[in-house]
Amino acid sequence: MNLLTWEMKSHTKAKHVVLENYLKAWFPIMAHTFERIIYIDGFAGPGRYLKGEDGSPIKALKIALDIFKQHKVKLMKKDFIFVFIEEDKESYESLLNEIKKLALPDEFKVIPLNEKFDVAMEKILGNIKTSLAPTFTFIDPFGTKGVPFSISQKILSYNSCEVFFNFMSSGVIRSSSVTDHTELFGTEEWKEINDLEPSEKHYAFLDLYFKQLKTSAKVKFVRSFNVRNKKNATIFDLIYATNNKVGLEKMKAAMWAADPMGNYTFRDTTDKNQLVLFEDSPDLTPLKETLLHKFSKQSVQIQKIEEFVLFETPYLSTHIKTKTLVPLEKEKTITVNRPSGSRKGYVKGTIINFP
Ligand SMILES: C[S@@+](CC[C@H](N)C(=O)[O-])C[C@H]1O[C@@H](n2cnc3c(N)ncnc32)[C@H](O)[C@@H]1O
């Protein structure tokens, strides 16, 4: 199958918006911090859709190029490595053609590979002598075949390496051609949940994948972003895994900034007991309740609340102060001890007393 014959669907746009939002933050932070950074698109596609929209590799190159131009003096002589893996010959040729149209600086090294993702990645990972440079890996298959958990596990064993995986749970649930998911999950435990109802199976499979990331790959932070159609059926879940606190913050912001488009809704599904719909003006009652419950009868520094919200909830730091703590303080549910010199707001050192 070839993307050249495809019209870009709006759910693909949703995926691209999150990717773009994130890369606009990831490239500058990583490029300024490290001498070499790597971007891998494991299922790259032909680089262009039917109506001329950029495919994910071209989007990534253009974003990196913009950032490079803006900060040329500081970024000159650094290495920006792009690995694009595409199995289909025609799509691969098309991608090469699209890359040629871009005027890329010498600092950009593009490595296109006409291979299967797992085969190419085994070679790349097998050739590492010391450590893998900070790498963002986008894994965007059609289904769930050919995406062994062991690859993500190896990537994530290196510091500053991240995985962003389009987990086609519908493929796992409905596929009749792929009946063995041991490679995908890196465990046989999927068999224990295979007979559940489809709706329960979705979360059970996601939970198992998270568990594998947290326990086998020992990843610190995992979040998932769920895209549903008008009938409320899941189309895909984007799973993000990282050990980097700043990465987590930027990816959550990237997900919230993906405006709901047309017939699709987006929500955080990292914790099935804490599903949060991404909206412009979200209902923050669950965040209030979570904070009141978590910190019940405690006096807590604002920094601790911010870390908890970042690590343990779908919410952003921008949801904490004006939208949550101010109303709680006004209604006298919480009281606040501010450091001397501070009369309002919640500057560093502020202590919140929870009932
Ligand atoms: C969902 S599309 C990728 C879309 C692209 N990431 C984008 O956003 O523009 C999946 C692509 O993976 C390719 N593909 C399928 N199986 C593959 C495999 N095992 N390894 C590498 N590429 C594969 C397909 O030919 C197709 O172009």
UniProtKB/TrEMBL annotation:
Where do the GMT-like wHTH domain residues begin and end? Answer: 267-341
Q: Which domain of life is it from?
A: Bacteria
The protein's name is Three-Cys-motif partner protein
What taxonomic ancestry is recorded?
Bacteria, Bacillati, Bacillota, Bacilli, Bacillales
